[in-house]
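Exercise: predict the fold of this chain.
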Amino acid sequence: MQKTSTRVCNTLLMNVPITIVLCLFAQMLSVWKGQVESFSWFVFGLNCVVAYISATIVGLGIPSVPLGMAFARKCGTKEGTLPFALLLNLIVNTVFTLFLSIVMTFVNVYLLAGAPLPAVFFGVIENFIPIWIVCYIVSFISSPICQKLAIRLTT
């Protein structure tokens, strides 16, 4: 079992690449959809702050790693193997992406753009899969690095 300080440090470290990539990619999705005027460095910065805080709450409040580990074991994979890591990340990334997609779409579509509430629902549905794929790749690559760094910083 991991120490609480290591878990907290790992969560804080992991949220940096996830937040930056999520916010950049979401902004790029808007640009690709022909909404070039929607890109703003101010909105990007605001999104990073909101996403980081939201990701920290999710990371510390929802036991996605234990759930992912249980799922990977249930699928018959062994800890420390690539299949285990892929299945673990499947659950962890899905939890984070689901919550962050809802929060960030609500902030950008409803609060900032003033669109009606149903637009949030459709925005989440429209953007979930591409954001999930990008965040899965980033979290899979950065997770072992952040974990090792968190262990070093807390021992």
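Check your answer against the key: The helical segments are 4-32, 41-61, 64-74, 82-112, 117-154.
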